[in-house]
Specification:
Elements (H helix, E strand, L loop, with lengths): L2 H27 L4 H12 L12 H34 L3 H11 L5 H13 L2 H6 L52
Helix pairs in contact: 1-3, 1-5, 2-3, 3-4, 4-5
């Protein structure tokens, strides 16, 4: 295995674990909107009524319950999406899904911003695109792993085998070569 391919696989494994942790934290945050649901139920049941003061309207309780349910559902949905993304990164599959979720993840400050930015940086590498079965460059085929120093014009032939094992049906016949940069 090529050293840069080993590095890419190691980085993807770490990113998958970090996505699992981030998804679990977001699922944990889904419990916080339950406070609004409890408060809304207290408004509706009359537990917040005070004989000497005007009572809050019952509609306010329904609003709190509705807001709490929507917020909790959004946290759960996004947490599950992040967990799924971690699983896809670990399996090296569905490249576009991972890219889109990482762009959205950047909006979740601060952990999502850091994790999303690092994941985008790793997913942008030609070797990682190859692991996902995505074309590294326009003219290259899937069986060609990018050389360690493509700008210098070096060539690194790689056997046409998928990262998970088995023959790669997209591999070029014969020795794997990498297109040279035209000067």
């Amino acid at each position: 295995m090529h050293p840069s391919q080993h590095r890419d696989i190691e980085h993807l494994s770490m990113l998958a674990v970090f996505h699992y942790v981030h998804g679990a934290l977001i699922l944990l945050f889904a419990l916080f909107p339950l406070i609004y649901i409890i408060l809304g139920a207290a408004f509706i049941s009359g537990a917040m009524d005070d004989p000497g003061r005007p009572n809050p309207p019952r509609e306010l309780g329904y609003f709190f319950i509705f807001f709490g349910l929507i917020a909790s559902a959004m946290f759960v949905a996004f947490g599950l999406v992040i967990l799924r993304t971690g699983r896809l990164i670990a399996r090296h599959s569905n490249y576009m899904w991972c890219m889109v979720v990482c762009i959205l993840q950047i909006l979740v400050f601060p952990l999502g911003t850091i994790l999303g930015a690092f994941t985008l940086a790793v997913l942008g590498r030609p070797g990682v695109k190859f692991l996902f079965g995505h074309m590294p460059y326009g003219g290259a085929t899937y069986g060609q792993y990018p050389p360690a120093n493509h700008s210098a014009g070096g060539q690194q032939p790689v056997p046409p085998v998928k990262p998970g094992g088995g023959a790669n049906p997209y591999a070029a016949p014969g020795p794997a070569t990498y297109p040279q940069k035209k000067d």
